[in-house]
Write a structure and sequence with these properties.
Number of strands: 12
CATH topology of the largest domain: Rossmann fold
Strand order of the largest sheet: 5-2-1-6-7-8-11-12
Largest sheet: 8 strands, mixed
CATH architecture of the largest domain: 3-Layer(aba) Sandwich
Order of helices and strands: EHEHEEEEHEHEEEEHEHHHHHHHH
Radius of gyration: 20 Å
Shape: globular
Number of helices: 13
Strand content: 15-25%
Number of domains: 2
Distance between the termini: 46 Å
Oligomer: single chain
């Protein structure tokens, strides 16, 4: 994004779910030059009719009139495309989005796991990566609730200082809190480690981490899934950043480290479990599945992450249901 006048940054927000919708509402309410892209013309008409509203942390905001259309209806080119869809949708529409960028434009991806790296490998330097700890829910289309005072963290996919990231952060900072990092790979892996363990295992068990880690099987599966993912990160040359907890459990202090993880994440209902409950496709292939794929490429043993990926797909197909017994099955697997 090379535009220096922030009032003229032509911006398209793609994906108006919980996260994208919250950002879009606050941006539109602040008078920022944003347009919105929906999956279908019908859903776009509904948002044009209802407008956007957000409540919760950060205070209420609303935009009665918004520029919104189905993605394929846009012929304009944009300085910034903020991609806030599910991971698989991001990959499906990435080529189309690259043709919606103006010269020097930026595609900012804020999906979990390895999506930004996958898109960077496809599209090159136009891709800027990011991750979110902004908690939000979609009450209904066009109506959102912000659940915490979180932020977006953005940076270059392969790391390094970035004036581009700083410019994007200044612009989007008119809507939500933004931060930049010269070590995005380390930040992505820090979140991925927890997604592979806290989130996915809780979804399989149908329980929060505090419940499942109290069982011998749950604690063992957590340890093995986390350790495998950490080994893959280190083998690939990335040391995960410290976020709320140190990504590498201190030697001889594992129980105290687990307690710190529990304090931060132990009572959160896994988002993947919500996907199961709503019959939605999960992002497992970009979380544990991504770790399993990289592990095989790097020669790192990843049996638990591979088994977790297969198990989640079986739950998606309704062959199985989330149940704590699933963790007993995983714990019996050989290393």
């Amino acid at each position: 994004m090379q535009v220096t006048d922030l009032d003229r940054v032509r911006t398209l927000i793609v994906g108006i779910g919980a996260l994208g919708g919250t950002i879009a509402t606050r941006a539109a309410a602040a008078g920022m030059p944003v347009r919105l892209a929906m999956r279908t013309a019908e859903s776009a008409r509904a948002i044009r009719s209802s407008g956007l509203r957000v409540s919760g942390v950060g205070g209420p905001a609303a935009a009665a009139s918004v520029e919104v259309a189905a993605l394929e209806e846009y012929a304009d080119r944009f300085d910034l495309v903020l991609l806030a869809t599910k991971a698989h949708e991001a990959l499906e529409i990435s080529q189309l989005l690259s043709h919606r960028l103006a010269a020097g434009g930026t595609l900012l991806c804020i999906q979990n796991g390895g999506v930004a790296k996958m898109l960077f490998d496809r599209l090159g330097e136009v891709v800027l990566g990011g991750l979110s700890n902004l908690g939000a829910t979609m009450v209904e289309p066009g109506v959102y609730e912000q659940r915490n005072a979180g932020h977006l963290l953005i940076g270059e996919v392969n790391g390094g200082a970035s004036e581009r990231a700083e410019r994007v952060a200044r612009f989007l900072g008119g809507a939500i809190e933004m931060r930049t990092t010269p070590d995005l790979p380390g930040a992505v892996w820090a979140k991925l480690l927890l997604n592979c363990s806290v989130t996915t295992i809780g979804a399989i068990a149908g329980r929060t981490m505090r419940h499942y880690v109290a069982t011998p099987a749950g604690r063992e599966v957590f340890r093995r899934a986390y350790d495998e993912a950490l080994a893959v990160a280190l083998a690939g040359g990335t040391r995960p950043q410290r976020m709320i907890v140190d990504p590498i459990p201190p030697e001889g202090e594992y129980d105290a480290w687990i307690d710190r993880v529990l304090e931060a994440y132990g009572d959160i209902k896994p988002s993947m479990l919500q996907d199961f409950e709503r019959g939605r496709r999960t992002e497992i292939d970009f979380i544990n599945g991504y770790v399993a794929q990289l592990g095989r490429e790097l020669g790192v043993a990843v049996p638990i992450n591979a088994a977790i990926t297969d198990l989640v797909h079986r739950i998606e197909r309704r062959e199985l249901q989330p149940d704590p017994a699933r963790l007993d099955e995983l714990a019996r697997l050989g290393g």
